[in-house]
Hints:
Layout: E1 6-10, H1 15-26, E2 30-35, E3 48-51, H2 57-63, E4 70-73, H3 81-84, H4 90-110, E5 115-121, H5 151-170, E6 174-179, E7 182-183, H6 196-206, E8 212-216, E9 222-223, E10 226-227, H7 228-240, E11 247-249, E12 255-256, H8 257-268, E13 273-277, H9 291-297, H10 305-323
Parallel strand pairs: 1-2, 1-4, 2-3, 4-5, 5-6, 6-11, 7-10, 8-13
Antiparallel strand pairs: 9-12
Helix pairs in contact: 4-5, 6-8, 6-10, 8-10
Bound molecules: nicotinamide-adenine-dinucleotide and guanosine-5'-diphosphate-alpha-D-mannose.
Amino acid sequence: MIKKRIALVCGAGGFIGGHLVKKLKKEGFWVRGVDLKEHEFCKSEADEFVIGDLRNLQVCRDVLDRSFDEVYQLAADMGGAGYIFTGEHDCDVMHNSGTINLNMVDLCSRLQVGKVFYSSSACIYPEYNQRDPSNPKCSENSAYPAAPDSEYGWEKLFSERMYMAYHRNRGLNVRIARFHNIFGPEGSWNNGKEKAPAALCRKVAETPNGGCIEVWGDGKQTRSFLYIDECLEAIRRLMDSDFLGPVNIGSEEMIAINDLARMVIDISGKIIEVRNIPGPTGVRGRNSDNHLILAKLDWKPSIPLRKGIEKTYAWIERQVKQAV
Ligand code: NAD
Ligand code: GDD
């Protein structure tokens, strides 16, 4: 009889963690989830869901009380531009996420966990390579000399290095991905941590026909956005491979933020004006570079941005209606 694989998902009450639990369950894993809080938008499908604070070493010990085949470390203090680029949360972000990673990497190594996935970010890439909105550079080998534009990015880079050091010195079996703006249903949409796709969907859904939405910056800054289902597929491929990373998991369909706003407006079927206002903007341009992941994992996204935004808009429109 084949033994059931067991997985721990840290941050299972969050956006990517919540979706990952569902995927692992479909694949036949026994799953334990852990988070500071329950999932806001769905009942977790984890076999066990532990409410606990991973900054506390004893909580980490308790959730790692058996030999896990796979640990997914997604827990972090994070958010979109309105959270990480204002500077107000810098020490929380660095302390909270740093402590979680310090605890988890050491225990995973001591307890000889099968494999550990660490979720890094495109925010580790140097600001100086992302000044031209039509031609940003985010290949994996462009990370150094390091110059992330946020403390969030610096913590991610430090933790990447720490997971790699445990790999070299203690044989920890790690996989590291740098996510590029992942979006979809069941993510933050109105709590100050929402990223541009959710924020723009919310603003459009809340605005009556003939109205106006506010978009931060001049709207010419660029990004790429990856739909959640694609992200999960890439995570699982990376975990099942021998490739350690760090590797980008993102889309190469780059778009200016005002064009993203217009796409959402078009999907809504309303006539809405876009007004650009000052706000936290982050780097001028960013796009995933997928050469490495294509070569190593034969993976590339298959869902066009618009399809993912249509699904996300429909979900956020329902949240907005339920909230009134
Ligand atoms: P999220 O905020 O929805 O999920 C993170 C979860 O971690 C939250 O549910 C939060 O409660 C939990 N958490 C925070 N501190 C904790 C603690 N001390 N103990 C236990 N749980 C704690 O974020 P997400 O979008 O699902 O992101 C998951 C991971 O991917 C994060 O590490 C994030 O930095 C990384 N990432 C995400 C994106 C993206 O676009 N979503 C991009 C780059 C990197
Ligand atoms: N959040 C948000 N809300 N962003 C807006 C808004 C708005 O109402 N209006 C315009 N924007 C602009 C921001 O100013 C920024 O220039 C761009 O949209 C993208 O913002 P976000 O989606 O919030 O964040 P990001 O792409 O700069 O960074 C995100 O992605 C990283 C990985 O690529 C964050 O989620 C990071 O935490 C993540 O690591």
